[in-house]
Amino acid sequence: MKANIKTEKGEVIIDTEVIAKYAGTVAVECFGVVGMAAMNMKEGINQLLKKENLSQGISVQVKDGKLLLEFHIIVAYGVSIAAVSDNLIENVRYKVEAFTGIPIEKVNVFVEGVRLID
Question: Which of 4, 37, 44, 66 has the most other CB atoms within 10 Å of its CB?
């Protein structure tokens, strides 16, 4: 899937995989986010994704010229899930909109697990 931006000089096409990778990098920088999660559907086991696979924990859709993002995250034990989610949504909305020039309609956060941090 691609996102299109029309400018006076032409059209810019951004692959949603690029947006997902950037958004994943922004998400793991947020306080309380341990990492992105991938769900192993066969066994129902959450896996913490390595840095090079962050986009697997994110869904990016383009609808009516706006982005819809879904994050599957693992949070740190003892933090407020609501505060972590709010912080993630604000940071992602600001940075991804600035990066792509495409408005974000909605950001959904799914907490898939909790981990202790050393």
Answer: 37
